[in-house]
Amino acid sequence: MPHSPQSPPVRVGLVGAGPWARAMHARSLAAGPETTLAGVWARRPEAAAETAAPYGAPVAATFEELLDLSEAVAFAVPPAIQAELAVRAARAGKPMLLEKPLGPDLASARAVADAVSEHRVVTQLVLTKRYHPATRAFLRAAEDITVTGARSCYLHGAFLDGDLATAWRLEHGALLDLGPHLLDLLDAAIGPITTVRSTGDPRRWIELTCEHANGAVSQASLSGAVPLPRARTQVELYGANGPLLYDTAGLDHEECWPVLRREFAAAVRSGTSHAIDAHRGLRIQELLHQAVA
């Protein structure tokens, strides 16, 4: 159900005030027209004020106050904080725009998904690349081929320094941060992943080998600690029809956010979760858990 121009914008409160919250979530939600930034709450009030100020949004003194200000909430916080607060937001009946991974581990992710199911709240997952037209074209093309094997990578050097070298990323490495993107794409493009094995160190370089229900085998190389001039994300599918390549090098990621925002508003107004929702997030978390089990 598309968002109707006659529908009032969805008032979305933002949880978090870090670099990602400032650069992407706050800016996108405030841009509208499908949403407005209803308020910002963070554990550091000064950071919340800095994030809210450019858009004239209020700063909530507590998480509960943010829930009162908002029709829906968006999370841009570390996984452990999201997992804790998302359960409380679900109990309050608030639709949620959730980051990946759902939580730092499988138990916390399952608690979020269970709360979502129990309270029947609308959810959508910020797997950013999934909202780009080129990604959707790649997945449609993949439906027409029988895949024998696949290679993929998501590589960058952002964990070496800069805004994205945050504590949770440095602790858990590329598997939790970058892994959801590739596991989601491989699972969607080839068919359900049944087993995942890993080698390496997620804080340096980790290699995943996936077996799919249809017999295909895929691999994923992940690192946030290799110096590159720009991030490299590629998926190569191989089968009888020849290779199919997905490469984000030429993509403008700014094209993802208006689609994401529009579809979240439509989900909230229709009362129906997006196809990429908390349960998809749990499925990905199960694969992450299996990779390190």
TrEMBL record:
The residue ranges of the Gfo/Idh/MocA-like oxidoreductase N-terminal domain are 10-123
Asked if the keyword Oxidoreductase belongs to this entry, the reply reads yes
Q: Which UniProt keywords apply?
A: Oxidoreductase
- Spell out the InterPro entries in the cross-references: Gfo/Idh/MocA-like_OxRdtase_N, Gfo/Idh/MocA_oxidrdct_glycsds, GFO_IDH_MocA-like_dom, NAD(P)-bd_dom_sf
Indicate the segments forming the GFO/IDH/MocA-like oxidoreductase domain, all copies: 163-242
Q: Gene3D superfamilies, from UniProt? A: Dihydrodipicolinate Reductase, domain 2 (3.30.360.10), NAD(P)-binding Rossmann-like Domain (3.40.50.720)
Q: Where is the signal peptide?
A: none
> What would be one Pfam family of this protein?
GFO_IDH_MocA
Q: PANTHER family from the xrefs? A: BCDNA.GH03377
- What's the protein name? Gfo/Idh/MocA family oxidoreductase
